[in-house]
Amino acid sequence: MTAPLGLAGRHIVLGLSGGVACYKAAELARELVRAGATVQVVMTEAAGHFITRATMQAVSGRPVFDSQWDSTPPAGMAHIDLSREADAILVAPASADFIAQLAQGRAAELLALLCLARPVDRCPLLLAPAMNREMWAHPATQRNVAQVQADGATVLGPGVGSQACGETGDGRMLEATELRDALAAFFQPKCLAGRTVLVTAGPTFEAIDPVRGITNHSSGKMGFALARAAAEAGARVTLVAGPVHLPTPAGVQRIDVQSGQQMFDAVLPLAPAHDIFVATAAVADWRPAHTQVQKIKKQGGTGDSVPPPLMLVENPDILAAVAALPPAQRPWCVGFAAESENLAAHARAKLVRKGVPLVVGNLGPATFGRDDNSLLLVDAAGDHPLPPADKLTLARQLVQEIATRMAAREFA
Ligand code: CTP
User: Fold this and answer.
1) Radius of gyration of the CA atoms of the chain, in A
2) What whole-number distance in Å separates Cα of residue 314 and Cα of residue 212?
3) Does domain 11-187 fall into CATH 3.40.50.1950?
4) Same topology for domains 11-187 and 196-288+311-411, yes or no?
5) How far is the CA of 233 from the centre of ligand 1 (A)?
């Protein structure tokens, strides 16, 4: 089962204009339905040359509309009725010609007509452009895109890459899952708009020699979910990640590191330029005092070799160092406490020891690598549990809690 994205119960009008990328629209409709949304497909005549109504009806589970002369909707007013019940209209693919029609307020076909007739304050319009790179770069297209944005439309992408025409460049429609996630992000409250957020995530790897090292079971999922949730909430996010195989959340700037010292060296210069610092990383407490340049070989025979001595030294505490920056350079700091017992007591002790305004406790061994978790927020006001949920849902709640505390601090 995929994690809840916040699209359940949403009603989306999915518009298709003409373009090869129509093949991705079928997958997009499936992804939206799978995420719990209802999808009403509206196609232009040109789209019908690239994908059939039957396919789109099958994947959306609803009859497809493609004509303003269709008498099926109540009162026969498809261009009015369809947008009245929609939470958003997403046009994917949005061709150069379709964007030009929107920019001029034309309404010759049902899809353009319903975009024009939608209540702009209640029914947002999102466009996923798809076209050849020269068409995208053309001043006329750029002018039209700027115009539709000025008129309130949100443009998703386009992406960069190889194109159906054989060329490579800007103009590819985003992939179905990217569009699904962008739509989910669109609906999130922008409670961190204008803020900058720095996040550490994942484990660290402390090399013993070129093939061995000390690490831990942290999957990085909570930190990546938090970076994603902060970006969805409108923040500019920098994510400093230890060694994990997770995709970078959309819009997040990622810096990969291996060791705790590298994470420290990456974070400290960045911290003063950020409003909020959230330390979710499970930084190794100790590292080998010396990393051997060559692989350590067994000394002695098989079964009775002498283990090499392993001298450890403590890693620098990144969170404590950021929290100790002078007030003018110090972001608002959030620590995580991964504990195996006595969560509330250990989390409160860390609040004091690290000198931070908020510590988020979780029972580490039970949740490492899982998709769900439960959190305990500990601050000067007391303990506040966030009950079990998937990590994205918890991350969005935590972002809201952080935003509330930031706002209260500024009004204090
Ligand atoms: N942390 C950090 N740098 C370190 C160690 C921890 O930034 N060298 C941060 C973690 O990212 C987390 C918080 O400090 O936000 C608490 O980490 P945790 O491992 O739970 O606690 P420790 O300080 O390591 O203490 P202990 O291992 O004794 O529980």
Assistant:
1) 26
2) 18
3) yes
4) yes
5) 26
**Residue among 268, 283, 322 whose CB has most ligand 1 atoms within 8 A, to mutate:** 283
Tens of pLDDT, residues 34-63: 999 999 999 999 999 999 999 999 999 999
Query: What is the distance, to the nearest Å, from the Cα of residue 393 to the centroid of all Cα atoms in its chain?
Result: 12
Residue nearest to atom 19 of ligand 1 (CA): 282
Ligand 1 atom with least separation from CA of 319: 7
Q: Please identify, by atom number, the ligand 1 atom nearest to the C-alpha of residue 267.
A: 7
pLDDT, tens only, 183-225: 999 999 999 999 999 999 999 999 999 999 999 999 999 999 9
pLDDT for the residue 78: 67
If you write DSSP's letter for every residue of 317-348 in order, what string do you get? Answer: -HHHHHHTS-GGGPPEEEEEEEESS-HHHHHH
Active site (catalytic) residues: 165
Domain definitions of the chain by residue range = 11-187, 196-288+311-411
Say which DSSP state 117 is in.
T
Which residues have C-beta atoms less than 6 Å from ligand 1? 200, 260, 279, 281-283, 285, 315, 317-319, 335-338, 350
Give the span between the Cα atoms of 14 and 16, in whole angstroms: 7
pLDDT at 346 over 70: yes
Q: What is the pLDDT of residues 190-201, one digit of tens each?
A: 999 999 999 999
Closest-lying ligand 1 atom to the alpha carbon of residue 335: 15
Under CATH, which architecture does the 196-288+311-411 domain have?
A: 3-Layer(aba) Sandwich (3.40)
